[in-house]
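[Automated response] Your request has been received and processed.

Submitted sequence:
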Amino acid sequence: MAHPIGTSICIALVGAAVSIAAQAQQIRIDSGTYGANCGARTGNATRDLASRCNERETCRYVVNASLSQKHRATCPADFIAEWSCDHGEFHRAMLSAGAGNGSTLVLTCVPSTGAGK
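Generated structure:
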């Protein structure tokens, strides 16, 4: 026979998981820019970033962008992503200059439940 306390704990954990899932929102890309620090046009990677990440809760975006010939040889480029969660919270994340193509940036709208939250 199962112990009644064990049953209560199991139900509480399931309830917590449902509560966290209900809070998750979807990503809505506002802007993606590759090489802003090199003078590249703001938003030059927005279309690709949006096609890969919009309407997801979390997205691992692998940078695959290019700069003009003028900027490519002389400047290690950064990558900046700006997004909102169901048109609510605004977020901004970046990969530092020189991170380059093949680098990964993780975007999310899943609420943090770790230490300090």
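Summary generated for your ticket: The longest strand covers residues 27-34. The beta strands are 27-34, 58-62, 79-85, 90-95, 104-108.
If you did not submit this request, please reply to this message.
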